[in-house]
Amino acid sequence: MKTLTAEQINEIRNSVDIVDIVSKYIPLTKKGKNYFGVCPFHEDNDPSLSVSPDKQIFSCFSCHTAGNVFSFIKEYEHVSFIEAVKMVADIAGINVDIDINKKEFKNNDIYKIYEIGQKFYLNNINTQLGKPAKDYLHQRGITDNLIKEFEIGLAIKNSKALSNLLEKKEFKEKDLIDSGLIVKDENGFHDFFYDRIMFPLHDINNKVIGYSGRIYYKSDAPKYINSKEHVLFKKGEFIYNYAKAKNECRSKNTVIIMEGFLDVIRAYSVGVTNVVATLGTAFTKEHANIIRRLASNVIICFDGDKAGAKATMACSDILLNFNIIPKVVRLEDNLDPDEYILKYGKEKFLDKINNPISVMDFKLNYLKNDKNMTQTVDKAKYVSEAIEQLNKIDDDILKEVTLKKISKETDLDIEFLKDKLNKKETKEIIKPIKKVKTNKYIIAEMSLLYYMLRSEDVIKMFDNRTVYFPTKEYRLLAHEINYFYKNNGYINEADFMTDLDDDMIKVVGEVESLDLKEEYTNNLIIDYINAIEEKNITDEINRLTKLMLEETDEIKKIAIAQKIIDLKVRGEKNVG
Predict the structure, then answer these.
(1) Same domain for 209 and 310?
(2) Which of 27, 121, 231, 479 is most enclosed, with most CB atoms within 10 A?
(3) Predicted confidence band at 18 (pLDDT cuts at 50, 70, 90)?
């Protein structure tokens, strides 16, 4: 494996434009010199992410996530730094010989346990023991190609088969149990899954972190057993098929959300590959935050029964909170997508997917479902609930169209209905600066760092005065800036952030949130340095005063008092 030099990494970074890269993931709007978009790294409704083409960096003025193009891809794709470098190199058409498969993971042994388990299950289904399971899958219309595509395996009848294999690998007992694949009781270790078809669950980095195991013969046992939550697998944060579908979703700028993994597999069988699933769990904010990284357009295609309609309603509300206005596919006969495709075939399903209804059409139908629209009370309740739902929508055209429908079906004047809507405040695309700290000394530290990140002269002024930052994280950042400059002979914010750890990058993001003028005067920098020194003097005077009060030796007291006087004189000179 080759180790890339700093020069090679900077060459890769300089070969792309961060605006081009970020705009592939989120919509950006130009305002002044910079571009702005809704930050994907926190629950954001206003465009708080700034991307600077001049500096080749991004920063969020709300959550303070910041960095260069590598940082953005690392955070967005949930990959390692070296993987992000490789991805940028691929975009730039630069061939780099680096091995990204040998990187160390947190919880690496649990990943390894799953790697062994997956190879074991895959091998089983391709042996004579796996023939009944394969026959069952074929009967369900799951072909060998789909079995291979989705890495479907088999846990054999022997309930100690995998545990015996893993015990020989000398994994820690805690990791074996924490993985959820192995259970321990009075009879020792045994497999959590056995005699089931194994549908692997991959994380967003395409690593297996769980399973859904299905019975494939007549039995009173539960049809499905799913992995229990563990350190790598949280159902409320898990999106099935993310890694496999992400490129197709981004290419089509559309993601289709389903409930079950078999729905996804069946959709693949008819060529619908921009599809993911929530694994049957309630849709969460964490799900929405992942989904919005895939595409701007979202289609909800849940089960066609009442429970599916209720889940669609809840899912759409969460998506709307993220400023995502989804469309909806509803399937007749209470069928789920898997059943619908088997019953009605590819063409009818594709017609449904290609012609989804608006989220408000779905909501209006849902709200009317349990009401008698000939009754005044029910009609009034319907209108009230419909208006409440419309207030969640930030789309004036959709609001207007929906209001006309409500007006027509209720005989209420459209102007009356409009008056019931919440008045929307007109917002300009601005940077919502989150002022966390207002102390003048803190501002002086942050401001000095702001200009150190931009100017060699300011770094020299900092170095010549031997400025000591009272705040630890700012002191560390100042040291890093000074060290980078002395090592490289220049300061460039994008290059500088390449080697910073996540904590330091966060501090840079906080400093960037000041959004000061690019121009400065030497007097301004001296003022910042003097303010920092004033803080140091004040802190030292307070420390010595406390020490003097506690001191019983008169001679030592006099010495301490003299130090306090000297510090006060020094402070007065700085002010002067």
Answers:
(1) no
(2) 121
(3) very high
Residues 286 and 222 in one domain: no
Long-range pairs for 518-523 at CB < 8 Å and ≥24 separation? 518/454, 520/451, 520/455, 520/458, 522/461
Laid out side by side, the sheet with 275-277 consists of: 275-277, 254-258, 297-300, 327-328, 357-358
- Judgement on whether residues 215 and 297 belong to the same structural domain of the protein: no
Task: Flag whether 477 is in a domain.
Answer: yes
Q: Answer yes or no: are the C-beta atoms of 506 and 62 closer than 8 Å.
A: no
Q: Which residues, including other chains, have CB under 8 Å from residue 278's CB and lie 6 or more apart? A: 238, 239, 240, 257, 258, 259, 287
The residue count of the chain comes to 576
For 87-229, list the strands marked E by DSSP: 153-155, 182-185, 188-191, 196-202, 208-214, 224-226
Half-sphere exposure of residue 352: CA atoms within 13 angstroms, side-chain side: 24
Q: Are residues 112 and 213 in the same domain?
A: yes
Structural tokens at position 317? 């509300």
Distance in angstroms (rounded) separating the CA atoms of residues 504 and 509: 9
What's the CA gap between 540 and 519, in Å, rounded?
33
Report how many domains make up the chain. 5
End position of a domain, from candidates 231, 255, 279: 231
Residues 143 and 266: beta-carbon distance below 8 Å? no
pLDDT digits (tens, 9 = 90+) for 188-212: 899 999 999 999 999 988 899 999 9
Among candidate residues 343, 345, 341, the one with its CA nearest the CA of residue 266: 341
Structure tokens at 463: 């170095």
CB–CB of 343/377 below 8 Å?
no
The one-letter code for the residue type at 122 is L
Give per-residue pLDDT as tens, 21-70.
998 888 888 898 899 998 888 877 778 899 999 999 999 988 889 999 99
Judge whether 100 lies within some domain.
Answer: no
Q: Is residue 102 part of a domain?
A: no
Distance of CA 503 to the CA centre of its chain: 17
Q: Name which of 372, 527, 503, 500 is nearest 441 in CA terms.
A: 527
487 shares its domain with 547: yes
Residue that is last in its domain, among 363, 384, 410: 363
The answer to whether the CB of 504 falls within 8 A of the CB of 496 is no
The type of residue at 455 is S
For the entire predicted model, the pTM comes to 0.73
Residue type, 396: D
Half-sphere exposure of 17 (CA within 13 A, CB side): 9
- Residue 168 domain boundaries: 108-231
388 is a domain residue = yes
Q: What contacts 174, CB < 8 A, 6 or more positions away?
A: none
User: Tokens 């994907």, residue?
Assistant: 40
Tokens of 115: 């790697």
Whether residues 274 and 319 share a domain: the answer is yes
Residues 72, 142: one domain? no
Helix (H, G, I), strand (E, B) or coil at 257: strand
Residues 52 and 18: their CA atoms lie apart, in Å, by 8
**Other CB atoms within 10 A of residue 270 CB:** 15
Burial state string for 511-539 with b = 16 or more CB within 10 A and e = fewer than 16: bbbeeeeeebeeebbeebbbbbbbbbbee
